[in-house]
Amino acid sequence: xxxxxxxxxxxxxxxxxxRANDYGCYFHFRRPRTATWFGGHGTIERYLMHMQYSKExxxxxxxxxxxxxxxxxxxxxxxxxxxxxxxxxLLPKGRFAVHxxxxxxxxxxxxxxxxxxxxxxxxxxxxKVVDRSxxxxxQQEHAAWQAEDPEQRRRTDIFDYKLYACYGYGDLRFVxxxxxxxxxxxxxxxxxxxxxEGERPVVITLSxxxxxxxxxxxxxxxxxxxxxxxxxxxxxxxxxxxxxxFADMIHLMDSPGDAYFDLxxxxxxxxxxQTKDILENWTDVEKYFGDAMSNPESKxxxxxxxxxxxxxxxxxxxxxxxxxxxxxxxxxxxxxRNGQLTALxxxxxxxxxxxxxxxxxNGQLSCIVPLDDKGEVHGAVIHYYENGKIRSEQWWxxxxxxxxxxxTEWDEDGRIKAEWCYKNDQLYERKEYDITGKQTAFYRLDExxxxxxxxxxxx
Length: 459
Fold this sequence. Notes:
This protein is α+β, with helices and mostly antiparallel strands. The chain has two domains: 4-272, no CATH class; 298-458, Outer Surface Protein A, domain 3 (Alpha-Beta Complex), CATH 3.90.930. Helix content is 16%, strand content 38%. The chain has helices spanning 55-62, 77-84, 135-147, 185-196, 231-240, 263-266, 272-281, 285-293, and strands spanning 4-9, 16-20, 24-29, 31-38, 46-50, 94-101, 110-111, 114-118, 121-124, 164-166, 172-175, 203-210, 221-222, 225-229, 246-253, 307-312, 318-324, 327-335, 341-348, 351-359, 365-371, 379-384, 390-397, 400-401, 404-410, 416-423, 426-433, 439-446, 451-454. Strands 16, 17, 18, 19, 20, 21, 22, 23, 24, 25, 26, 27, 28 and 29 form a 14-stranded antiparallel sheet that branches. Strand 3 (24-29) and strand 4 form a beta hairpin. Helix 4 (185-196) crosses helix 5 (231-240). The protein starts with a strand and ends in a 5-residue tail after the last strand. The model is unreliable at 111-117 (pLDDT under 50).
């Protein structure tokens, strides 16, 4: 059964949109209203922030829906399109799809790994709204909160201070475009009663999608579903643990530039430390904003790192590097809280090269990783025990395991434990030894079954 209808929106003015790329997305109505983005910091966290968005402004959109939001449109998609038509002039020009989803019919509520199983879904909403007039007060509150921990076990930056973060457990994420402080629980209870009676009120969402080539330079991305109408309905579905019925308008972008995640636009509405953190943790930020990062007239330039900068990390480590337009040039060093050097990297033109080194907390060398001029691992990667003896040695050939017996492992007394043989970048043979150096086991890859098998004759 067809659950989607597509069309070309020729009358769009671009007032209402979801702007997205592979890093984040935000709901835009004349300006950014709610943004979500990846956290970086070595985690898969997502952050959420609501911006100023008055009830009067939201009513400009909601007034288009006077009726028709309690109907099953699964068999009448043209009627659903007509219901949504008043919004078309507000949307961007271009190709759109309208999907109708309920708990009975289609792929959006199924896991690919468990045929027929229902998927998880998530409703993201916070109670806080960016108020740039309170920046100084927030900084004072954060400083006082930090001062409560004299041993500085807690090194939370102001960026993380009371910021909504989630890891996400569902395959489908709905994002509120208004804070939870505006939720009227009487309305939620009203919709809960209607849902219990068998009705399925329709939530209206807006999203964007770009189908790339899946290469690093052209990634595919699918934004979250931002709520146009139905916050109380969705909350009712959530309270009842029932899969929501919703109609999703999707902007099918021809290129990433059709509705991109514009950090310069966000810089006008986010807190400065949020813009700064995005710049410092977005791996591909130069790909999108390289020119702006080097332009003193751009809105994000004031937040770009330049010169020798020393910073204290979350757990008290000290980090030091020289930056040119947000990019490290030369040595990058990290020390632990006791002042012991723990990491040393070298950078040139945005590429890490030479030897990456790390140290144990007792000062002994922990690891050496050789990199070529392209930043690819090439040569012997060596790991060390805290007593200074070599733990393992693995030879690489430009990001690939070197063919032959290219990895060896020793115990803390320097006695050989195992050897690995690689073929076409995958493990092919392995030998194991006892403490006397005698070989005790030999394994070889069964290329038909794609698993290692012990070979007694290879002893």
